Known about the structure:
This protein is of the alpha+beta class. It has helices spanning 2-17, 28-33, 49-64, 93-105, 107-118, 158-174, 203-214, 217-226; strands at residues 36-44, 68-77, 83-90, 121-131, 145-153, 179-188, 193-200, 230-240. It is built from 8 helices and 8 strands, in the order ααβαββααββαββααβ.
Amino acid sequence: xxxxxxxxxxxxxxxxxxxxxxxxxxxxxxxxxxxxxxxxxxxxxxxxxxxxxxxxxxxxxxxxxxxxxxxxxxxxxxxxxxxxxxxxxxxxxxxxxxxxxxxxxxxxxxxxxxxxxxxxxxxxxxxxxxxxxxxxxxxxxxxxxxxxxxxxxxxxxxxxxxxxxxxxxxxxxxxxxxxxxxxxxxxxxxxxxxxxxxxxxxxxxxxxxxxxxxxxxxxxxxxxxxxxxxxxxxxxxxxxxxxxxxx
Length: 247
């Protein structure tokens, strides 16, 4: 019995002295607020894309009457054709549940927006994300184009790769090669996935900034550190719709 007690005492002492892994990218700080962003992707039937966009433009007010639309874009490059991407903001999960219940009772939204559009869509995807604690949602100074860069990080979570990733993002921003709109960490969907939403005046200005950053030793060093934790990456060029709050 005495030997068992001594073993337990040593184990507890070792545990208390073990280094604690901390990261500014950890999940805790973001959850105190509760605000999250739902990423919605619609794959539209090729022959129905124009009809779909016209109907959304005409009736989007029926949907925004219930919750806040952050942005609505068509995918120009980097993904399947005839795809639209939109982001919705919610205070918490209870708020989203309330919105869904209200939509279920909104006959005008169902008849003019939902039912006509469902007939034009092949499939839909939904992903729940949080803004990372060290980033807030920024609104660009004027209209432009957006790039959604999606990074599939290696398993281990933000405690493993959060700080190197943060340094890589900030290095691009600090040198002025592009403007950061937001950094989002997936909560529901594929885990260890991070989305970075960038803004540029045009696709050509984005290309010029990217070429310059590739020759900047500060950016190269930061990216080389972060890429050690990277599994894969995909970029999409997004064109905002006229009714999109982010233009």
